[in-house]
Design goal:
Layout lengths: L2 H32 L11 H28 L26 H29 L5 H27 L21 H43 L2
Helix pairs in contact: 2-4, 2-5, 3-4, 3-5
């Protein structure tokens, strides 16, 4: 390989590295903006609340899907079908409720219910994975993002029902499994992450529909006042 070819390869590698850094920087910036919980709900209008909620749910849906793949790859001799195992103690991915406030409340309750399970999975994987494992970092990130999304959904519920406080689910549900062997831990973790990913997909769709419906309605009302 002559000097010209080496220089071309180096430039291509540099360009790819720069693009990756820029991409990661943009993703980080988006997440920082979306997970900002310091802004009071009352200062954000309908469009702002729902828009940020939809974007955060969509980003989390993508990252949770990648997390499931990473999780499965780190479990050794592990079959993908184990992730579909029936477990009554793990939150479902199904939303409930007929009215928009009821469905938003269902999203909020589910997010709160998933949190202790994510903490349990993280605790188990800390014992099973080396400290440098990317899986541990991804588990920490998804746990934090679930907490941030629940804050956004809380704000959305307050927009829909400003005079009704959001009922809080138990801090630590009794459905957390007792001591498990290593294989049971692997299956449990994959079930939790798979259902969370499915739930986030439905959440993103639900919030997008709500945004289109509610914010369009508010715009129509404003126009009719002129």
């Amino acid at each position: 390989m002559n000097g010209h070819d080496k220089n071309m390869l180096w430039q291509v590698h540099r360009s790819q590295s720069t693009s990756m850094v820029l991409f990661l920087g943009v993703i980080l910036f988006i997440f920082v903006d979306l997970v900002n919980t310091t802004v009071p709900c009352s200062t954000m209008n309908c469009n702002k609340n729902l828009h940020k909620g939809v974007k955060l749910a969509k980003l989390m849906n993508r990252t949770s899907a990648e997390l499931v793949k990473t999780y499965q790859a780190n479990q050794g001799d592990f079959a993908e079908q184990f992730c579909k195992t029936s477990m009554d103690n793990v939150p479902t991915s199904t939303l409930s409720g007929q009215t928009p406030p009821e469905r938003v409340l269902s999203i909020y309750t589910h997010l709160k219910e998933f949190l202790p399970h994510l903490m349990k999975v993280q605790e188990q994987q800390n014992d099973l994975q080396p400290p440098s494992s990317p899986l541990l970092r991804q588990l920490t990130e998804i746990k934090d993002h679930v907490s941030h999304l629940s804050h956004k959904v809380n704000c959305i519920f307050q927009t829909l029902q400003p005079n009704i406080p959001v009922p809080e689910p138990p801090v630590w549900p009794t459905r957390i499994p007792p001591a498990q062997n290593v294989f049971q831990q692997k299956v449990y973790g994959c079930v939790v992450l798979t259902r969370l990913s499915e739930f986030l997909s439905k959440t993103a769709d639900e919030l997008r529909l709500l945004k289109n419906r509610m914010c369009k309605k508010k715009r129509t009302q404003k126009m009719s006042n002129y």
